[in-house]
Amino acid sequence: MKKYKKTDLESYTLGTTLTLYLLTKKIEYVERVYIHSKQEKNEAYNKIIEICKDNKIEVIFSDKIINTLSDKENCYVIGVFKKFPSNIDLTKNHVVLVNPSNMGNLGTIIRSSLGFNLNNLVIIKPGVDIFDPKVIRSSMGAIFNINFSYFDNFKDYYDLTKETHEFFPFMLQATKNLKDVSVPNCYSLIFGNEGSGLSRDFLNIGTPVIIKHSREIDSLNLDNAVSIALYEFTKDIN
Prior knowledge:
Elements: E1 10-14, H1 16-25, E2 30-35, H2 43-54, E3 58-61, H3 63-69, E4 77-82, E5 94-98, H4 103-115, E6 120-124, H5 133-138, E7 147-151, H6 154-161, E8 166-169, E9 176-177, E10 187-191, E11 209-210, H7 222-234
Parallel strand pairs: 2-3, 5-6, 5-10, 6-7, 8-10, 9-11
Antiparallel strand pairs: 1-4, 2-4
Helix pairs in contact: 1-2, 4-7
């Protein structure tokens, strides 16, 4: 077992809580579980052992493998799973990330999206690998409870959804304030790369929106901007 690479057919969860969540949500894809000798034999441990036994999932006690895969000293359980297929629900609202490049941000956005009951995520390539263990860890397991799809370019996504969704690109160049937006029945919230944002071409797509903030900063962090947008778009239904 070697450290994760994007081309691998498997990925893994780092930690007891994440592995237990994996076993609860995606057990059909779990291949095996590694446990460190320092793992406390507590309720979570007993639950993992029970689930693995009931579902004939191999449990391997190996300090060496866990030390190889984890950069954290307090990681004592790792769950290995086959990468699973996923597709967005075209009838639901979407968060669209154009070329996201930060694994921590992606995981946080996944968790926030699930927290606001918007569980369909679109990633426009090139973009972060959603199965990277760092993304999984920062999502706190929320990745196992969302739908996601990758598209080679924004046009492919636009052509697929232009008849059903209203588009809201979030841009510093926009003039429409977020607080003044009327929320439609079906929408796509579109965000650009952490460094460059969206290109000016998106000013011609849907209703470009700006999140007003003080002049003391240049822009909001991507994960903060997505969370604010999610709150505003869902506050009347959550």
